[in-house]
């Protein structure tokens, strides 16, 4: 069995030399570390606010599982179009840094918007939409900058370093929120103000330390919508897009996983944010070694292993384990899922996409995944409401298995020519 040319080394993607220690990390490049620092700081800000959101909506405001599923799906999926916009604009004006910076700034301002929203559900929804719009706008340009800042054979390591730094922020965010609440006498506004200040620091770091990257095309060669359509004429890109959609449909979202764990183990609301901390800690520890392993043995097997771990998490939600063993195993597997899929999937896509359409291509794949996730989240909420959480979780596990099998059939044992992996537009 062999991997398709999507995942095989090519003349432009040679096998990496053996690096170790500082020399291996230096291969990633300073720009990746700068982008990782921006993501670290921004994630502290974001997770201070969002770590308790599922419990607040479902347990505090008594939202039904279906209502939460719709909000959770929209929370991620409704920004899909803006991912495409961000990718296309970054490729057209050839400044991915500033497109990403606009997205980071929108999310920072949204933290202040939450102060003004009060208890209005409509206003809170609007502010969250602005925050997610900022995330949608910045994601593809940021990931494209990573692919343009590291050599092709080190992309798994580069994304691993970035995602590890990002997960440090996700780990620290809930802890920072708990510390601020303790110091401010449980005043939520103090968390929001602190979150805004931290997000603003992230924007400042991006402006001062992140360097723009683009290909060497003459500036007079603009990217047109016709060029974007050319992307889908390449079989490897079509297969990657379809695989991303299938895998996105297998994900029900963090909120549902944590709610089901809280429901089963009767975890107190004050400890609820620590579920996200457990996942982030595992992600932090595994992101870099898994990224390096993906560069060594192939990125596709790592992605498939990650989604197999996700299936195991769904089964554990109503399996034989209880108490701390359940929490430890489930959160460890969930963190492994993120470490094996989040950045590695983008590293898998990077070498396949033409450099001058790299950001747009990444945005296209992320958009397909986000739209599939929106549908999955709504349908899981509906299944929970109609048939209960046990049946819904088992259905989710079955969908995850089918998605892994279908992705393997799409991307393994494909005999493609070199021209399939190179797109000219």
From TrEMBL:
Main location: membrane
Subcellular location: Cell membrane
UniProt keyword terms in alphabetical order: Membrane, Transmembrane, Transmembrane helix
Domain Major facilitator superfamily (MFS) profile: 31-415
Membrane topology: Multi-pass membrane protein
GO molecular function, one term: transmembrane transporter activity
Chain ranges passing through the membrane: 24-42, 48-68, 167-184, 190-210, 240-261, 267-288, 300-318, 324-349, 370-387, 393-412
Region annotation Disordered: where it falls in the sequence: 1-21
InterPro entries registered for this protein in UniProt: MFS (IPR011701), MFS_dom (IPR020846), MFS_trans_sf (IPR036259)
Gene Ontology, cellular component aspect: plasma membrane
Gene3D superfamilies: MFS general substrate transporter like domains
PROSITE patterns: MFS
Signal peptide stretch: none
Superkingdom as given in the UniProt entry: Bacteria
PANTHER family: C-METHYLTRANSFERASE, MAJOR FACILITATOR SUPERFAMILY TRANSPORTER
Protein name, per record: MFS transporter
Species of provenance: Streptomyces cupreus
Species lineage: Bacteria, Bacillati, Actinomycetota, Actinomycetes, Kitasatosporales
């Amino acid at each position: 069995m062999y991997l398709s040319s999507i995942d095989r080394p090519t003349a432009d993607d040679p096998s990496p030399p053996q690096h170790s220690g500082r020399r291996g990390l230096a291969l990633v490049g300073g720009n990746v570390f700068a982008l990782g620092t921006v993501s670290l700081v921004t994630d502290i800000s974001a997770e201070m606010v969002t770590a308790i959101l599922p419990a607040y909506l479902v347990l505090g405001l008594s939202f039904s599982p279906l209502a939460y599923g719709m909000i959770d799906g929209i929370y991620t999926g409704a920004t899909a179009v803006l991912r495409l916009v961000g990718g296309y604009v970054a490729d057209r004006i050839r400044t991915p840094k500033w497109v990403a910076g606009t997205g980071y700034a929108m999310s920072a301002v949204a933290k202040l918007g939450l102060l003004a929203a009060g208890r209005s559900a409509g206003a809170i929804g609007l502010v969250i939409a602005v925050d997610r719009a900022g995330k949608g706008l910045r994601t593809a340009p940021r990931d494209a900058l990573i692919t343009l800042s590291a050599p092709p054979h080190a992309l798994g390591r580069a994304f691993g370093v970035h995602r590890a730094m990002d997960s440090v922020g996700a780990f620290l965010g809930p802890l920072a929120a708990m510390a601020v609440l303790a110091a401010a006498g449980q005043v939520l506004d103090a968390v929001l103000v602190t979150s805004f200040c931290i997000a603003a620091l992230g924007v400042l770091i991006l402006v001062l330390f992140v360097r723009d990257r683009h290909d060497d095309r003459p500036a007079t060669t603009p990217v047109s919508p016709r060029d974007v359509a050319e992307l889908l004429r390449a079989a490897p890109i079509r297969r990657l897009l379809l695989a991303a959609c299938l895998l996105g449909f297998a994900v029900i979202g963090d909120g549902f996983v944590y709610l089901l764990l809280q429901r089963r183990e009767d975890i107190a609301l004050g400890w609820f944010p620590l579920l996200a901390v457990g996942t982030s800690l595992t992600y932090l520890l595994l992101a870099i070694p898994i990224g390096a392993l993906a560069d060594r043995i192939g990125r596709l097997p790592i992605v498939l292993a990650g989604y197999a771990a996700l299936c195991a998490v769904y089964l554990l939600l109503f399996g034989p384990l209880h108490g701390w063993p359940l929490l430890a195993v489930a959160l460890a597997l969930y963190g492994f899922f993120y470490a094996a899929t989040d950045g590695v999937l983008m590293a898998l896509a990077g070498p396949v996409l033409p450099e001058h359409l790299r950001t747009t291509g990444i945005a296209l794949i992320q958009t397909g995944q986000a739209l599939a996730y929106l549908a999955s989240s709504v349908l899981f909420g509906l299944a929970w409401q109609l048939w209960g959480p046990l049946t819904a979780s088992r259905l989710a596990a079955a969908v995850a298995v089918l998605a892994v099998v279908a992705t393997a059939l799409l991307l393994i044992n494909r005999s493609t020519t070199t021209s399939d992996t190179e797109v000219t537009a």
